[in-house]
Specification:
Elements: H1 3-12, E1 17-21, H2 25-39, E2 42-47, E3 51-54, H3 67-72, E4 84-89, H4 98-114, E5 116-122, E6 135-139, H5 145-155, H6 165-175, H7 180-194, H8 199-213, E7 216-219, H9 232-242, E8 255-259, H10 266-277, E9 281-284, H11 296-310, E10 314-318, H12 321-325, H13 331-334, H14 338-352, E11 357-363, E12 381-384, H15 390-403, H16 408-414
Parallel strand pairs: 1-5, 1-6, 2-4, 4-5, 8-11, 8-12, 9-10, 10-11
Antiparallel strand pairs: 2-3, 7-9
Amino acid sequence: MQLCERLAELIQACFTGIWIESHEHDDALAEIGQLCQQESWRLAIWDLEQGLRIAGTQAAIEGAPDPLAAVRSLSALAQAGGSALLVLVNFHNFLNSAETRQALARQLAAGKQNRTFILILSPMVQVPKELEKLIIVVEHPLPDRQQLAEIARGVAAEQFEFPTGQELQRLLDAATGLTRLEAENAFSLALIRHERLEVSTLWELKSQLLRTSGLLTLHRGGESFEDLGGLESLKAFCKRALRPGISRSNVRPRGVLLLSPPGCGKSQFAKALGNETGRPTLLLDVGSLMGSLVGQTEANVRQALKIVDAMAPAVLFLDECEKALSGVASSGQTDSGVTARLFGTFLSWLNDHSSDVFVVATCNDISKLPPEFGRAERFDGVYFVDLPTPEQREAIWRIYASAFGLDERQQFAAR
């Protein structure tokens, strides 16, 4: 559902406080302005630099750079038989003031009678406790494939500059997860470099954006299955599960868990899988998600998983996961439960995510991995990679069955 459609429903239902989470303020304001024009609603916009402005006029209201004055001015904008909207841009910076919070609460309550609405436009959600029951949060969605294709056609004016067929689908896959401005910049850069829209430029830009966030790394190496000996059944299974053109309405591939001692090719396989299937490989380092402030780690986990979903279809590579998650059992005594909450969020995402993300997790010592990590339906398969002898394979299998609490019937079925 588009932002304007969501806002139309909420305003007609008289939700007087709406928090819009968006990194694309100009596009969000354009959609809001278009909605107000269609519905004949009055619109005012406030930001710290330009103050309060009435849509359709150029002059700013005198004294309105004061955020408190902007909130109090909304009652004067009310019109009989219609609605009035006040958009506060980046207003999260001013919510530390008790006076501002009280003025917002009073205005949101009064909006039920005079149909005045406050829309806070911000890249982050920081709703104060006093306003939690008065404000609903709405996310400004990233552009879908159709919108990305329209942006690409707007940039590539000549016919030979615009790809077709399978090449166009790969271009849209690469652009998925970018904002409208980022996509337009990437398409323009591709035209400058190659005189046509090329996928390589978009992946380069995406890699730089991920490096800026510091939560994920985009791997774009040249590895292939031909460079990796053995693992034939694993290669065949993953290529069959991820080959394009398959309807996944009922069954969607989730990932594999690879077990073996170090040096058996697990990491090399994960990096080569992306190239073989035409997907980006995202490397998730759990250590980079840890933050020094209260709640920062949990916010980093949610943001990282949100980025992963936005970049689908993709391969998510979690290397040596038992080392990253080995402290879950004692988390309550050692880090106030931060690691346990991180692990719980990741497990919930493994179960519930609907994005086309294939997870490849590797593990050297299964006995140190929390049992719930290998529960059914979180991974499509568990593979023992290149164990030298049958005796060693049987020993590792006994550790795996013991760690995950499998009885004899479940062990037989899993084999």
